[in-house]
Amino acid sequence: xxxxxxxxxxxxxxxxxxxxxxxxxxxxxxxxxxxxxxxxxxxxxxxxxxxxxxxxxxxxxxxxxxxxxxxxxxxxxxxxxxxxxxxxxxxxxxxxxxxxxxxxxxxxxxxxxxxxxxxxxxxxxxxxxxxxxxxxxxxxxxxxxxxxxxxxxxxxxxxxxxxxxxxxxxxxxxxxxxxxxxxxxxxxxxxxxxxxxxxxxxxxxxxxxxxxxxxxxxxxxxxxxxxxxxxxxxxxxxxx
Length: 240
What we know:
It is a single chain. 22% of the residues lie in helices and 38% in strands. The chain is α/β, with parallel strands linked by helices. The protein folds into two domains: 7-45; 49-238, 3-Layer(aba) Sandwich (Rossmann fold), CATH 3.40.50.150. It has a seven-stranded mixed beta sheet with strand order 7-6-5-8-9-11-10. The longest helix has 12 residues, at 51-62. The radius of gyration is 17 Å and the shape is globular.
């Protein structure tokens, strides 16, 4: 680590949601570089905790039938969900919808490890846009093909359905909001959602009103900061 700072801010920008920053720090105990994203003083994600983000893709795509899948990933972040989805050979196309141009730029500028796995894969395309606003429209997620439908939508933006980053997101997590999302899925299509909270019976009931089948998966993972175990939730819902 000689000549390299222990903590380095790689990117910073003021946004309507707050000041977003990407930073890299070296953890001397674990002997690894850790990449972290913050909005103001709120930690959004860390490269130390990626198991559930990866399981979001695996569990969501495991529920899909067929071998030529068109996928939407809501929220780019550090790219773990999007890269894991592309590791599934059945995926023929993927749109990654990200509200912040700056986050897309991190990957295009190779500020993150393995960014090229997304930027150089011809199946992947970034869409700069508000996932929640696009989900509520008839045109949907693909600006080049309005009304296009997909086999899977994988979402990881808010902390949970009850802990959202912006008040406007809250309407999405109602039965009506989820029904609007379901219009963008093909028959039998899958919606999967990451949450930092334990399974929420209230949100599960909203899912059950909008989809033919829904279930909650608790995803445990080792926490290197505490030496114990933590857990996230992945919801998987399938249309009729």
